[in-house]
Amino acid sequence: MLVRILDATESFLDRLGSVDPLPLSLAIGCHLVKMACTSMAWRNVLAAAYPESRVRWRSIYAAYLAGVGVNAIAPARAGDAVRIVLAHRAIAGSTYTTVISTTAVLALFDVVAASLLLGWAVAIGALPGLEVLASLESFDFAWLLARPLLFDLLVAGALIALALLLAWVRGHVANLRERIGQAFRVLRPPTRYLGRVALWQAADWGLRLATIWFLLDAFDIPQSLERATLVQVSQSMATLLPITPAGIGTEQALLVYVLSGAAPASVLLAFSVGAKITLTLTNVAAGFTAIVLTLRTFRYSTALETRTADETTR
Hints:
mainly alpha, 15 helices, globular
């Protein structure tokens, strides 16, 4: 996998001079606005959960950017923990249980949107089957798909671990149901959810496609709504269970497959890595800028030591 990614990176560097800077800049701008829309949706969910507290959008935007920045360089979505901690710090009287639960509210829209796009991609036969996935170069899960018994055991183990975790949380967190229910207050009435959360998330998904549209243009790949949507599906699949930081490897393998025929293989490889590098650098720059502005230090663990033991166990 590493060799394949290095080859793709070399291809990208060879074509770097031919990348159009204008659509590339527009893609970066759309990506930053997209994250602003997502953070606004999250801020509104948190504000509904804590109506007695002042929930500033800029603080939640900074927390969201910080999480995205860490996720860009760390595997297994480690940045999500950073995002939760910073959001908790920003809201007086908040609890980790409720703040974490608010992300489930955002997931409602994302799951529906991703499922619809995935279902469409499967229906038109654009995605590779399991037998093809197992043979794709750079695909992170190829070895696992080739061992179905091991795959079943890992799924069973994950479900058991989740059940044990839920049992532990239920026994150690006071007023668990109340705290989780607090996160879902924004759903009542439904019009509040549609106007203050779903609308922003719909803008988020629209800007995702706009970002991809401009990236395709920057790398001189013919643009179409279908191709932009297939790229988005590939990105969603790669970040579902990222073994590598930002799902790199899996995404590149899927992109080359779904865009085959749109451009020469060398151009597709350059696009797959170039788009990932562009968005990753944007996420890292925005994320760590947010961390410095929020914590006044790069030393994340040192900043957290200022919290009391009571706060960290909520």
